[in-house]
Amino acid sequence: MSTDSLFLHEELMLLAFKDEEGTLVGGTMYSYAIGGAAIADLVMAERIRIEDDPKRPFLDVVDSTPLGDPLLDEWLESMATARKRRRVVDWVTRIASSSNLKHRVAAQLCRRGILRTDEDKVLWIFSRKIYPEVDPRPERELIDRLEAAVFEDSDVDPRTAILAALGHHCGILPAVFDKKRLKQRKERLSRIAEGSIAAGAAAEAIQAMQAAIMVAVLIPTIVTTTVATN
After folding, report:
1. How confident is the model at residue 8 (pLDDT cuts 50, 70, 90)?
2. How is residue 51 annotated by DSSP?
């Protein structure tokens, strides 16, 4: 299967799972990455647009036609029927807080034949669902795309630019590549996140990505500070 048939939120979820264990890589903020990726999916599908105001970028639905993806269609309907306009960061946070987000995205990857559903025991008592990889080709293709985007000095397509930026800021890229190598490419990753490298990248998609990064970086910090001071 080619990754061309995967949505961005599915690609990020695939990268966030350990191949053999079928559990999430520790230390990631995958849910915020998925929220940002879902927004970018909808922008690139021309279902929503982001208001051109970097201080308060609001999200508007321009076409509520379903895409055929259960999760994206559910979120799109929520946006279309919302009583008031909301900022991009609000929608990223709402998507990130969706019930059973990990399991629902993983289920889609299982239906595609990339992962499989299994169970194991925690402390030999509690059961949990895990999602080991059964078809490594899609993830290998993803990693090859990211390798070229991050470690080569060439143009990057919009999808891969968003994937690289979200994966970097949400802690997924360091689980895929050596941290020292990534550190050496810090400037390159910053340029990708700013959209200055992504040839032909839609401005709206880059704005959505940046909004997701802001949520992914700031929300946990705010929560941690609040807990520490209470």
Report:
1. very high
2. -
CA angle centred on 9, ends 208 and 65, rounded to 5°: 75
- Whole-number pLDDT of residue 164: 87
Task: Collect all residues with Cβ–Cβ distance below 8 Å to 14 and sequence separation of at least 6.
Answer: 6, 109, 114, 115, 138, 139, 142
Lowest mean pLDDT of 12-26, 43-57, 118-132, 186-200, name the range: 186-200
Dump strand ranges (E) for the chain.
Answer: 48-50, 58-61, 86-87, 118-122, 126-130
Q: Which amino acid is at 194?
A: E
Per-residue pLDDT of 137-150, as tens digits, reads: 999 999 999 999 99
> Which pLDDT does position 28 carry in this prediction?
72
The 3-state DSSP class for residue 128 equals strand
DSSP state letter for 19: T
pTM (two decimals): 0.83
From residue 159, alpha-carbon distances to 20, 21, 132 in Å are: 26, 27, 25
Domain ranges for the chain:
3-218
CA distances from 55 to 89, 94, 196, 219 (A): 11, 19, 20, 17
Contact of 186 with 169, CB cutoff 8 Å: no
The domain over range 3-218 is classified in CATH as 1.10.3630.10: yes
